[in-house]
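Students often ask what a holo structure prediction actually looks like on paper. The answer is less mysterious than it sounds. You provide the chain, you provide the ligand, and the output is a string of discrete structure tokens encoding the 3D arrangement of the protein together with 2-oxoadipic acid.
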Amino acid sequence: MAVPRITEKNPEFDISMGYQVQQELVKIKKNQGHEIFAFKMGLTSMAKMTQMNITELIYGYIFDYMNIPDQGEISIDELIHPKVEAEIAFILSEDLQGPDITVDQVMEKTEWILPALEIIDSRYQNFKFKLPDVIADNTSASRVVLGNRKFRPQEFKIDSIGVTLMINDELRANGVSAAVLDNPANSVAILANMLYTNGKRKIPKGSMILTGGITEAILLNKWDIVTSKFDHMGEISFRVR
Ligand code: OOG
Ligand code: MG
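The corresponding structure tokens follow.
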């Protein structure tokens, strides 16, 4: 069930409190036996910033139980008002620790890139929130479907990957990876720098990072069949039941 956003009745609830709540949530999930599956960045493209009416970057976590296989299914009964967005994911070959991490350093320390569909779902009514609310809600992380092939970051230009998002054979969104901060590698660099600022933390070797939606997110309905095509990287699909 959707709930009112925190800042509605508590205007003093701020970004740092939002990240404190997020850290508590991570602890709870870990105590329940879940593992962090990936880091995620959010609101990294103009399309997403405009859609959500927030222009600051955020980060959160995707947990292992959120991972759905390509051609798999998500169950709408487990979710509130899910939306889908297409993203590029990175996997690191080395630790990445801020401050001042650059795109070139990210490229040197990236082992693989792969296409991904993120399913976001906000616990707030009407999918509306302010920045501290969405941070406390773990940046709406809900499900992820990864492409089944991964690629070396040098194989093609990471900032010119065209993406289409089709639902039931209708084109609902399309874009190019440069929409994410000019280059999705920049999203990884900023994550490393934000984690450093928030407690001198690093992105450990082997981590996966979802760099943020390239296009606006599209609302899902029961029985939807979602298919997304990425230049060079193939296709991902899943079904909503
Ligand atoms: C916040 C999460 C944003 C992205 O890729 O930009 C996000 C939201 O829009 O609910 O995951
Ligand atoms: Mg996302």
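The chain has a mean pLDDT of 97.
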